[in-house]
Amino acid sequence: MLTRRAAIAGLAGSCVSVAASAQGGAGNGARVMTAMAGASLAGGARAPKLLGYDGIVPGPVLRGKQAEELRLRLVNQLAHPTTVHWHGIRLPNPMDGVPSLTQAAVAPGESYDYRFRAPDAGTFWYHAQSAEHLDHGLYGALIIEEQQALAIDRELILMLSVAPEMAATRQQDTILVNGVVQPDIAVERGERLRLRLVNATGARGFALQLEGHAVWGIAIDGEPCEPFLVRESRLGLGPGSRIDVCVDATLRAGATASLLEGVREQRQVARLVYGSGERPVRRSEPAALARNPLPARIDLKTALRADLTLTRADAIAQAPIFTAARGRPVSLALRNPSGQPHVVHVHGHHFRLLDRLDDGWKPYWLDSLVVGNDIERIAFVADNPGKWLIEYRMLESAETGAVWFAVT
Question: Are both 208 and 313 inside the same structural domain?
């Protein structure tokens, strides 16, 4: 386990080294990233069963500008085939990273070039499409920067995960933040911080609370929303989900504030540690982020209506559960008869969660959703051609399922 002082240095240093290494690349201008076994958690010793991109967990922070082309060459040094899924990115179908549906899996010793332009700015992440590979450490943050920067002093990426051996169990797990157990995060009084929170698990939800600070939500699952004051500074973060928040550092020099996890029984997973510096404290509401190019409305009256029952599926079916013409609205009912919550992730699209009593929708976009025992309805515009996966997984379990739909 890292010391608190080392954890602070490690978090800061990783940002510098990632920015520097991203300038290098393959002959075609792509950044080279290697999937390999024997990786290490941030600052720790290598573990034979731990998988990582470039030998570290989390993998390197990848950054790009909205609408600019990203190029990455995946080199597979694993003993098994693998692919990369770009979670939440509305990218061209051949780049989505789903074996047997959008591309052939990358065999051991082989490589594959991913190239795409991200239409949306926001907080996203990348991971192996294989749930087992994800659970063992193949994940990292993907940040698509806005054309116009938000008025903040600093941003912090906080990737929450669990120790790989506990990723699909119900036992008391060890929560990691950027690969570290209970790191200290250095802040200065008067700073306005943007926290990019990422749930980098396939089947574990987090109930978070930041002590002593007002927390303003500004984006959910990578998509901007109207800034809102988070009640009691509590945040729910389902598997695969992200939330961006603004926090003003208002405590005195030398103070600490815990980031807690849990509902009835809370435990500290990280701390903000105030240094000796000080600047004037801002208490104004943060400005809204510029909207991404998503439809202002969805015409539910003309929507294609479909149903999906969340049952275990060992292989992707040969036929789509529905086919929609490009631009057609879709209303999808998600039914969960299992008695256990499932997380559902829709590839290539963002959706609205529909209200249960009428045809209104929640004022935010999602790409992942936890479905309990009730039926949840979602809606989106099928505006991205291709074969798109809808994957689902029982919480705190290795049990998974997947279907797909086609946009013609």
Answer: no
Q: Which residues contact 172 (CB under 8 A, 6 or more apart)?
A: none
Confidence of residue 315 (pLDDT cuts 50, 70, 90): confident
**For position 278, what pLDDT does the model report?**
83
Cα dist. 7→25, 66, 200, 276, 297 in Å?
28, 31, 19, 19, 45
Give the chain's mean pLDDT: 90
Going from the C-alpha of 240 to that of each of 97, 131, 139, 283, 319, the distances in angstroms are: 16, 12, 11, 31, 26
Q: Say how far apart CA 41 and CA 365 lie, in whole Å.
A: 32
Strand partners, 382: 328
Name the residue range of residue 136's domain.
4-145
Contacts of 173 (CB under 8 A, 6+ apart): 162, 163, 166, 204
> Which CATH number does the domain housing residue 264 bear?
2.60.40.420
Q: Rounded CA gap, 48 and 164, in Å?
A: 12
As a whole number of angstroms, the distance between CA 196 and CA 219 comes to: 9
Domains contained in the chain, number:
3
Residues 177 and 131 in one domain: no
Tens digit of each residue's pLDDT (9 = 90 or more) over 233-245:
999 999 999 999 9
More confident residue, 373 or 215: 215
Considering the domain architecture, whether residues 311 and 273 belong to the same structural domain is answered as no
CA angle, corner 268, sides to 143 and 195, nearest 5?
20
Rg (CA), the chain: 21
- What's the confidence (pLDDT) of residue 168? 47
